[in-house]
Structures are given as C-alpha cells and as structure tokens.
Amino acid sequence: MANQIYTIGREFGSGGQYVGEELAKRLGIKLYDKELLQQAAKDSGFCEEIFENHDEKPTNSFLYSLVMDTYSVNGYSTASFLDMPLNHKVFLAQFETIKKIAERESCVIVGRCADYALADHPDCINTFIKADMNSRIKMISKRANITENKAKDMIQKQDKQRASYYNYYTSKKWGDAKSYDLCLDSSKLGIDGCVDMILKFREILDAKKN
User: Fold this and answer.
1) CATH T-level assignment (fold) for domain 5-209
2) Residue range 88-137, pLDDT digits in tens
3) 79-117: buried (b, 16+ CB within 10 Å) or exposed (e) per residue?
4) Please, what's the b/e burial string for 124-143 (b: 16 or more CB within 10 A of its CB; e: otherwise)?
5) Which of 34, 77, 105, 193 has the smallest count of CB within 10 Å of its CB?
6) What does the domain layout of the chain look like in residue ranges?
7) Where are the alpha helices (DSSP H) in 73-185?
8) What is d(CA 159, CA 180) in angstroms, rounded to the nearest whole number?
C-alpha cells in the first residue's frame, strides 16, 4: 500500500502552512515545509543557504548564480546536470528529495511544486488554500507587525513569486482549480474547516476504493 501524501499549495497569508500543520498533527504524520530544504541540502550536497535563497523563487540574479555555482555538488555529476543554471539544479535536487520522502513515509508537504513532483503518486491529495484579500492582509499585518498597506504589498509580491516559480517549473498554473484535487477558502472555512474537508475527501476516496 502506497504512503498517503498531502500537498498544500497556498496563497500568501491564507494560513496554508497552518492547515498543513494541523493536518499533520491530526494524522500523526510529519510536516515538510522548511524541513524539506534541510533534507534536500543533505541529499544533494548543496549548502542549505542555497536552497533558502532559491526557495520558491523563479530565478535569482545571473551573477549570484555564477558565484554560488562554484559550490561542489555531490551525487550530481552528469554533464547535463553540471551545465545547468544553479536554480535548475536546486529545483531538481528538491524534486528528487520530495519523491524520496513520499516513498519513505506518509506526510504533508507544503508548497515547492510537490504536487507536480508527485503527479504519478497513487495516494496523493493535492490541495490549494486561498482566502479573501482582507483576511490575508489582516493576518500578515498582525503576524509581521506591519501596516495593512505594507502587508498588501508583501502579499502581492509573495504571490507573484510563488506563481512565477510554479508556472516556470511545472506544466500547470498556480492557483488554477485544474491543477489541484481540492481548492479551499480558509477565510470561509477556517483552518480546522479546511483540514476537515481534506480528511473528508480522503474518506470518500478510500470508500470508493473499497
């Protein structure tokens, strides 16, 4: 029986990370968010800072990539890999780590194109969490202790980065319902409500199998 995997795509400020945390807690499985970067660094031989600097960003400056590309890479020595831009190498290393984690254990993975990496996984539920802009502004303003105007600017910038990253590396469109199994509005359902819906969806899928 395949491990049960849950991927969470999310708008910035929608509480998608909290949905992932609560889902993992209720199921008694591990959550991979920033932890995924640590694991990918360990698997690939890149230093963790490289993954943090490229985290869900479409590209970095060309000069930065040239400088950082001097880091040694263990386990990725094919000519085609060595000739790739650094951001591609980082994505591929993360891609491979996601697949390894899914083979090893049931888990929740937040962001980082995990739904795309696990497109062929038989027991993966891909969810996208959204929320209305006012709710997101209030959450980010409170969490980051900034004005609502600054929060709105931050949200727009982060959403643009995530969309660019996702659209660049996958054959799908970030936030488009066709790209996911479930699209949930946390400003209407709340964090617990979103988790309830994901678990209900799993229950329905399991019942259909039986």
Assistant:
1) Rossmann fold (3.40.50)
2) 777 888 889 999 999 999 999 999 899 999 999 989 999 999 999 999 99
3) eeeeeeebbebbbbbbbbbbeebbeeebbbbbbbbbbbb
4) bbbbbbbbeeebbbebbbee
5) 77
6) 5-209
7) 79-82, 86-104, 114-117, 133-144, 148-169
8) 17
